[in-house]
What does this fold into?
Amino acid sequence: MTLVNKRDWAARIEKELRENILPFWMRYAMDRETGGFYGKIDCDGHIGREAPRASVIHSRILWTFSAACRLVDVEYRATADWAYDYIVKKFWDAGYGGVYWMLDHQGNPLSGRKQIYAQAFAAYAMAEYYRATGKPEAREFAQRLFRLIEDHSRDAVWKGYLEARGRDWSALEDLRLSEKDLNCPKSMNTHLHVMEAYTNLLRVWRDPELVARQKELLEVTMDRIVDNTTGHFKLFFDNQWNSLNDRVSFGHDIEGSWLILEAAEVLGGSALADRARRLAVRMAQTVYDEGLDKDGSLFYEADSQGVMTDPNKHWWAQAEAVVGFYNAYQLSGQEHFLNQAYRVWEYIEEKIVDKVHGEWHAKLSPQGVPYLEKEDPDACLAGPWKCPYHNSRVCYEMMERLKK
It folds into this structure.
């Protein structure tokens, strides 16, 4: 059993946030000539000044620095303002509403598709920016995004949300969030982050329709998306919620375990919250039993029979494991969850943090060796999916939780 000094652990986490994660994005990622943030920084720290710019990463940066302004120090307000201004001026579609999927490096739309995942992250970030600044326009943007999602994506018959629409919110044939995903109408990933966005919006806007839609989404998540036989998420679905593959994503399982509970607690209602607490512990225990390597890190993906289909160590999954296991410890008092949360953080400090260039390595081999871009195109310090959202969030969450 690991002896955990919570005060020391909290100090190490805050040091990582203040001295590595946040400064990296302020120092290297901000495009001070044309606005916004560069679309790519490679493993060697080289900036891709002409790389395309994704709405998801900009929304996540806005969320990160808004939360930093609110929770850590007001000095981070300027970076949050910088992100907010660029999203409003460049990513917002003045013609049809919502945020574009991708811009070129000069801020011109490359893809106007309305991926619901991206709309959700924009709402999530705008709500956080409002929490940090009180700027009414930010909450109005989040409210507009909520209504666009509800008007154009919600399945009124089978519940839940369709993956994507065209720029004008018309139907699309290709609904995929990424090339690695199935082309299907519904996914776990989109629903998880719509729920996360609605949770944050509820903190600043207690609208009756939002309350009703979040309750419906929580029930869909616990009834349809979680496999209550195994304690795992199912990942891809047809309209009627038939599962379309047999993969298990350990990172999403452990992330979802605490996001579901957070959603239920912010929403209110003892029955849903009690169910979410039981489910959080169940999902965390399943990941503990099936998804851990002997060095304490989290494998990425397996099939339904437990055979590892991706044994690599992805940065974001390790971050979510710390919060998810610690959350299960808080709920259950079971020491193995506390010890496991600490073990994953130690792995992050030793292996994931890039001690040469700053930030975190995106992906490591099963042996804990960081991949380079020539070995894996997803390996980078900043990119369409690589951002400060997961690793700053584990810091915010754990700083607060460890103080309790």
Q: What stands out?
A: The two ends are 21 Å apart (CA to CA). The mean pLDDT is 97.
